[in-house]
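Record 1 of the preview.
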Amino acid sequence: MKSDTTADRALFEYLLQLGDDRLVLGHRLSEWCGHAPILEEDIALANMALDCIGQANNLLSLAGETESRGRSADDLTYSRDEMDYRNLTIVELPKGDFGFTIARQFLFSSFAVNQLKVLQQSSHAELAGIAAKALKESRYHLRHSHQWVLRLGDGTEESHRRLQQAIDDLWMYTGELFEANDPEDALIAEGVIPEQPRPESVWRKSVTDAMEEATLTVPQDQYMITGGRFGRHTEHLGHMLAQMQVLPRSHPGATW
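->
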């Protein structure tokens, strides 16, 4: 990269991706509060939502500092429009039934754990610190969702059917996890973050092993949805942001 300004821009864009993934997923998980099938799971999903939102706050705060335009994490959360969000499409889909939420969490957490293992080795000290803390939480998210994949997949006929349907419905969104990413590539070239060898192969093996143990069928490769990293989202994100942003947009400048 030719200048610090260019390097900072790549880091800012990458931090938005990381933060937006976790902000949007955290909001979706929070929608289960008071609605989970058992009390223990209600608490678990709420805690996972808080973890994701906490990670997002740290990442978006660092993004604001990197941008150097005076924008805080709250500004980046509540003042950006839908097209300015850089999250993966998979995290913005409605929460669906419990099987859908578990399947999505398992697929995303399997990706996030490997991603954070690499990012904790970043030469950027603050990013490395955020990643190291988030990795501990994401390992719990993966372990928790993996246990539920086994319970539901190898459980009753109904639980197996619902989880298999969720996996089938979500599979077309998984290609976006590994598509070409200009900010990430720029940071790898600059030596800010290490390059992860064969990230899709590592993810696919861990997911396939778990699904086979749960007596689930890995879907055939198919057309993959893309666009989230470029601000092209489903209508679901717009509806979610309308709810999430209505209070701060109604009272601009207020703090709480």
